[in-house]
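haha ok so turns out i had the wrong file open the whole time. this is the CORRECT one, sorry everyone. sequence first:
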Amino acid sequence: MQDKNFDTLSQKFAQNIYGTTKGEIRAAVLWRDLIPALTRLNKPRLRILDAGGGFGFLSQKLAALGHDVVLCDISEQMLAIAQQQIAASDTELSIELVHSPIQALTVQQFGQFDVILCHAVAEWLTDAESTLHGLLSLLKPNGLFSLMFFNKEALRFHSLISGNFDYVKRDFKVKKKVGLTPNHPLYIADVRAWFAQWQLSMISQSGVRVINDYLKNNLPPNFDKHQLIEMELAYSQREPYLSLGRYVHFLGQTKPI
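then structure:
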């Protein structure tokens, strides 16, 4: 089995991820979690690795704040989109594009980073635990590890309330794989155990899309997308809603020297 490469789906991926309400929710939760943590590092210019970052939505936002970013992705087409957007930016962005599997990144070549982002990548990896652990060798002491992963229990619950009982009984196996359906969703408890094993202090935990994916088809006439995002932020760090997030965002920190 091989890790997922989005070359053939790059345009669809770029449009579906951040060009929708789902994407706005995702961006709002990640940004809300990240900015205070970055500020507490108390460095005006951070080295940031966006591992498997696709076209670099967050890379570009962070570079616009004055940080130095290395954007790595296995998809040449996703990086081509990133290059176009970076070139079109009104602000000069310090972003190095690296076409490579994230498993191939080494300290010898890139040094260490203050922050590593790995968002919506783990659920496409054949061995997420080993790959994520390997990334930590590139993280400085007191560095931040931002991991967002697809939540297997949320997949189960959404399928149950949609009446897809056979799909649940088959443990989510299908004859024909949908392009953007992750291959290897993760359990929250497993990832929490990894963080503990890796001696990462948990800075914050959030569910991403704790409401949106469970909305009824017939919404009230006064339904407001902006109010939805406000509610997503309000409930994303509260149980039981956090554990129902379609994705979960963990922000961990390595020990200082």
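The two ends are 38 Å apart (CA to CA).
again sry for the mixup
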